[in-house]
């Protein structure tokens, strides 16, 4: 079928926007990223948690359903951003003492408001020499966009994601 001049193939354009088209591939990618973040967030005697920062209580509940057991901090606690950033800096420092990586996983929704909040918090934290881990959000934004644009909307998918997450958690690599 000939294409009109100046228009791209809509299937190709769609796949670039929303990531891999196959749901199983996308869910495996999401599960792998979630498992990696769970390992960093996991509480344990020999290593302190790498906290994860989300927007609110529903986001925390969704992450708990997906297997997160460590500290989950919330932006929406009635504090202004400056106080929140100062608290995070004082409590967690600039580096995770176990893996020497970023001291905090920053995970805002991948809608417009979440994107703005992610940018503002990243800039404020990095201004205090506190780099953040944004890998989980980057992957979820790319592969889960067809199903959701928020963290809390991942909860209904937990029954499909959890077995895949467990596979990656059990994998010693």
3D architecture notes:
- Helices cover 50% and strands 6% of the residues.
- The longest helix has 19 residues, at 23-41.
- α2 packs antiparallel against α6 (135-143) and α2 (23-41) packs across α7.
- Strands 2-1-3-4 form a four-stranded parallel β-sheet.
- The protein has seven helices and four strands; from the N terminus they run ααβαβαβαβαα.
- α5 links the parallel β3 (104-106) and β4 (132-133).
- It has one domain (21-170): 3-Layer(aba) Sandwich (Dna Topoisomerase Vi A Subunit, Chain: A, domain 2), CATH 3.40.1360.10.
- By secondary structure, the chain is an alpha/beta fold.
- It has helices at 10-18, 23-41, 57-65, 81-92, 112-127, 135-143, 158-170, and strands at 52-54, 72-74, 104-106, 132-133.
- It starts with 9 loop residues before the first helix and ends with a helix.
Question: What topology emerges from the helices and strands here?
Answer:
Elements: H1 10-18, H2 23-41, E1 52-54, H3 57-65, E2 72-74, H4 81-92, E3 104-106, H5 112-127, E4 132-133, H6 135-143, H7 158-170
Parallel strand pairs: 1-2, 1-3, 3-4
Helix pairs in contact: 2-6, 2-7
What's the helix-strand series?
Answer: HHEHEHEHEHH
CATH class (first level) name: Alpha Beta
* Strand arrangement, major sheet: 2-1-3-4
User: How far is the N terminus from the C terminus?
Assistant: 46 Å
List keywords for this structure.
four-stranded parallel beta sheet; 4 strands; disordered N terminus; alpha/beta; 173 residues; Dna Topoisomerase Vi A Subunit, Chain: A, domain 2; 6% strand
